[in-house]
Amino acid sequence: MNQVVEKLTLKDFATDQEVRWCPGCGDYAILKTMQKLMPELDAPKENQVFISGIGCSSRFPYYMNTYGFHTIHGRAPAVATGVKLANPELDVWVITGDGDGFSIGGNHMMHVLRRNIDLQVLLFNNEIYGLTKGQYSPTSEQGTRSPSSPTGSLDLPLSPCEIALASGATLVARSIDTVGKHLAPMIRRAYEHKGAAFVEILQNCPIYNDGIFEQIKDKKIAADFRVEVEHGKPVVFGKDSEKGIRLNTSTLRLEVVELGDDVSESDLLIHDEHNKVLAQMLSVMGGADFPVAIGVLYSNPKAGLVADSHAQLDTIRSKGRGDLQTLLNSGNTWVVS
Amino acid sequence: MELVEEQLGEHHLNEKDVMDVVVRFAGDSGDGLQLAGTNFTQTTALYGNDLSTFPDFPAEIRAPAGATFGVSAFQIYFGASDITTAGDAVDVLVAMNPAALITNLDNLVNAGLIIVDTGAFTAKNLAKAKYQANPLDDDSLSDYRVLAIDISKQVLAAVEPFGLGHKSALRCKNMWTLGLVMWLFDRDRKATTEELKAKFAKNPEIADANIAALNAGHAFGETAELPSGIHIYKVPKANVAPGKYRNITGTTALAWGLIAASELAEIDLLFASYPITPASGLLHELANRKNFRINTFQAEDEIAAVCAAIGASFAGNLGITSSAGPGIALKAEGISLAAATELPLVVVNTQRGGPSTGMPTKTEQSDLNMAVGGRHGDTPIAVIASSTPTDCFEVAIEAVRLAIKYMTPVMLLSDGYLANAAEPWKIPDVDSLPSIPVKYHQNPDGFKPSLRDETTLARVWAKPGTPSLEHRIGGIERSHDTGDISYDPDNHQKMTDLRKAKIDGIANDIPLQKVVLGNSSGKLALVGWGSTFGAIHQAVKRCRAEGLDVSHIHVRYISPLPRNLGELLEGFDRILVPEMNTGQLIKLIRAEYLVDAEGLNKVSGQPFKIGEIKAAIHTEFAELADQESDQ
Q1: A244 and A169, same domain (yes or no)
Q2: Domain check: are A131 and A177 in the same one?
Q3: pLDDT tens digit sequence for B335-349
Q4: Over the stretch A191-209, which tens digit does the pLDDT of each residue have?
Q5: What residues in A contact B300, CB-CB < 8 Å?
Q6: Measuring CA to CA, which residue among A129, A50, A70 is closest to residue A97?
Q7: Count of CB atoms within 10 A of residue B59's CB?
Q8: A256 and A172 within one domain
Q9: Is the pTM of this model over 0.90?
């Protein structure tokens, strides 16, 4: 008779810790989505490890009833690399924010993605420093007024997905904190992906940067400001799916077009998540002229450093394990009698 | 205090039988003198002398030929009694060009022997060395005995039958010179011959040419009419304990100590490091030993290296990271995280000259303060220091033992001198090494991440992947009772006290401080740590032979200090602390024991000379005599 394995539920993944994010914080929605998704992944609970840096988002591991490590500012990818190298069986999740992941920890982010470490990076991007009380971050729009930029920030923002692609992430996706129906499948894709998966989650900070993503979240207008890309499907958006994205083959640029007499769906860009150049173009869409792309922008699963490192160890060790006494006696020796 | 240079009037090579000799091979980086030195070391060990060696590399990787800043040297001190330093002053200087001569002459004893390649004393090379006139042609070397040979010409003749090009043929100069020095000290060429055959197995003609050059250099000594007073010197064999020996550098000994520890603890090691001089050798050696329980990870920076090591320890491996001073500074926040989360971590610091980039290839002991106190917060960790190249093996095992047993970061202090210096090592019997128990928590009943061993105060090690032990750790202060985040004032006091008590408690688990040499109380104690061991030891030994009541105490455990050290120090009228810094251990022991210690400090990038320490001991006794006559 088969052993009956009790199915885990959302509650099994909640801890007894009081959640201490501000009321209305987007992190609550992400946490709920994750706790709900976890039982559906059918993964051993004891193999789940959440590793974070510093910042509001980095409190996340305290609320997941799995293994968790709240490390130091910006360094979660490096700690996660060590965890994964030590035990490749573990499912490692890096929880980070725009400041943690792309300011103080930018170097580690670049290298964890470059090495294609088989883990999931969930970057909560709220375009502001929350825990230190509202200073502008590396993803803040230029001109953001904050305690450290009272007359408007001067820095130009970076695009997390664009950098993730350039760094070598083999899955890059974007989603929205409160859109669980979209977010959950994105996290699942990241989980099932072989290699480094990077998910940018646009997350609202109700205290210091409230409403920054309102256009793409407000159900009344969101359809005009965001486009959900799906592999093999034309890139269509708008309340009545009346608009689309077309690749202008003479300028090699994307353009927004109205579907109608002159333009049909077959003229539109068909999303190909294996095409990195396309992914790069989609990743930087936004602003006044373009909708923000959400979905899996890029996917190219392959083995990374951890798998390669252990394969190398296996090859070396298959030729014979080292013997300590033999090592100590190796090389030029002499005997004094 | 001021150092008084001892007048080195030992005219060693005037005698036919000499008890100990220092030979220094110096030349361009490309002259192959490190190889010549290594082979001379090998044959000297086989001959039966005790010895110690030190390579002296330039910081530049490929300095222009003939430049003074490109001089590479290899020094060996060998003799009939115990040798613990690479030697104060040089008896025989091999100078392959004018730059090697001008940069090494200062340290040559009076009447010392200089072997020079006249073929390299060209106008161009003399100018590069900033010689106004050729020193071989005037009387500027009259205090020394000079053996001036056109080695280049000799070598070209010796290897002619092998049909090498001019450049390749000249590359055999190092072996010709080695052959001559081997003749001078009656050494056997067999081991070198075999090594050359193995090294050039794929190019037998190169091997043959090098062997021919080696033999020609030797034959030159036998047959040429050398200036009077230059002849074969026989250095009696040392009285060495029976056993099997090999020559080993501190770097190799440390790497092998870590490998041994992984076997003794039956645990996989993740060695995560970022390249830095002079610590990279450890990464190189371990990267070659993945057939053991070793994996290596070259991180993107020093911070990532320590963090990856911490991650590995969290996951149940032992994480080890390694660097030199500037890199250790970058790791400080990570080390604090390991201390706060109570995870095992070994941090190897191969110290070099500071501050900032300082002198990367030169040695110093100036990171003791940083090791003991260089972290934010009240963050004690264990600190231990190795004292000789061979001691690195044992200290590495001890660092791993403490890290695992006490779930704490341990900093292991080595330095540039220890890393590169080599000495004979009696190969230990693996079965005699103690096992290191590792306990991963398994039992879910009553599990909390804050559980700890009542004796050691070590926190439990519950690694991810273990069913029903899911828990969270982190850098935020945790409740003593539950392990959950806590900002409670009383709890912070309690946890701070606990972290201190845990490290202090290690004092009960380490050997009592012993006196290395001399009485356990008396007039003067020299208290050292780290690589000054050899020089202090010889100085104390020589002064004791003169009848002075001086003892040598050498501290391995810096944090915590051995529990009897204070009492031991009280038994001496005077305490002198030689250090290659401006006074770091001395502040620690003054603060800890309120003893009136004096410092002997040298920060030149060069190790202490025996003579410098001897002179300081003499000064101490002169002052003691003055005090006594005043009373």
Answers
A1: no
A2: yes
A3: 999 999 999 999 999
A4: 999 999 999 999 999 999 9
A5: 78, 107-108, 110-111
A6: A129
A7: 13
A8: no
A9: yes
